[in-house]
Design brief:
The protein has 97 residues and is α+β, with helices and mostly antiparallel strands. The protein has one domain. It is built from two helices and five strands; from the N terminus they run αβαββββ. A five-stranded antiparallel β-sheet has the order 1-2-3-4-5. A hairpin with a 3-residue loop joins strand 2 and strand 3. The longest helix has 10 residues. The protein starts with a helix and ends in a 6-residue tail after the last strand.
Length: 97
């Protein structure tokens, strides 16, 4: 999923990672492999956010999905794998009372 600025900010407030800028050299390659997403890097590897959709309702949450793991202690090489849910759920909408 490609996130807007507000969604990126909300995601980063709940998931400790760095967002890859649109002009980062690796983004074009990641898009060829994984499609149009906003990509995040953390100490474990490469991730995207996938909406948790309920039919007939607007999605309010997304789950962090792992796409690749670091292969070295210097965080210079990633090894891709099948998309794996991480169990980390991010609330994209502000709760209003």
């Amino acid at each position: 999923m490609k996130l807007n600025e507000a969604q990126i900010t909300r995601t980063l407030s709940q998931f400790q990672a760095q967002v890859l800028a649109e002009d980062h050299p690796a983004v074009a390659q990641f898009r060829e492999m994984f499609g149009q997403h906003t990509f995040f890097l953390d100490a474990r590897g490469l991730h995207v956010l996938e909406l948790l959709e309920i039919p007939g309702m607007e999605a309010e949450e997304g789950e962090v999905i792992s796409l690749a793991d670091w292969t070295d202690a210097d965080f210079t090489t990633l090894r891709t794998h099948r998309p794996e849910p991480t169990g980390v759920v991010v609330r994209l909408k502000e709760v209003r009372h």
